[in-house]
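Exercise 3.2. Students should predict the tertiary structure of the chain below and write it as structure tokens, then compare their answer with the key that follows.

Predict this chain's 3D structure.
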Amino acid sequence: SSRFEALRDIYRNMTPEDAAKVKEIEKVTNHDVKAVEYFIKDRFKEMDIMKWGEFVHFGLTSQDINNTSVPLSFKEAIEESFMPLLKEVLGTIKGMAAEWAEIPMLAKTHGQPASPTRVGKEFNVFAVRLEEQIRQFEQLTYPAKFGGATGNMNAHKVAYPGIDWITFGNNFVASLGLKRSFPTTQIEHYDNLASLFDCLRRINTILIDFARDIWTYISMEYFRQKVKAGEVGSSAMPHKVNPIDFENGYVAFEDLPDDKKKDPDDEDFDEFDDDDPVEEDDETEEIYGEDDEE
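Answer key:
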């Protein structure tokens, strides 16, 4: 009905000014979710439906809001932004693998010349790795908690004992494209969220490996970079073209503790020092091509 559409317009037409009003309310409540509740109730007053106002947060605790809204936002970000871009990258890598399938290349292991390989095969390694992680990611579910103060829907049962609240909760959460965790305590378990995040971490690791490999191939002069008109490869050495796109890609996907991260604006920041050789260790050994031990 038009009334329901007007209610949905509260979030569909949310403005920065509305968000500022929520923050003003929060200064009084000192509680973020309660501030949102009061903001919605104010809209109920404007719509002359305040007799239903207490149903805005009926039988709920803050985590019933947080543990549905955050996974839903995460799901939409993955499906609408992240995954389409990742699959675009995957398609580009697969295209290069096919184009260069028969081009020979000397592989290196432990930084030393090894058996020959093909450029296309090396690119296909990354394509297969990404495809497997995407497959695993798409099998995972987006969890949500919806069960009241301690996960038992006590208030719901007392107020309306004739309703099957477990089925109601399952259906409501499913309507959002999420999977209801049951039973729970006051909060979501977070185990399934951790699985989603860990899969994203592995995808990031693959992309780090890819950026490192291309950076290394450039340093070995297997590849040369194209210079666009007007671009400057180095501020002091005109013969150079620094592989900054791959360096930036490496930093963007890198997963380091906060105390290990470097600020790119720091004058001492130099993720890839021009004068330093690529170090070999267990984590970067794969850079040099085939990772066999012979």
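Discussion points: The beta strands are 104-109, 112-118, 143-144, 179-180. The radius of gyration is 26 Å.
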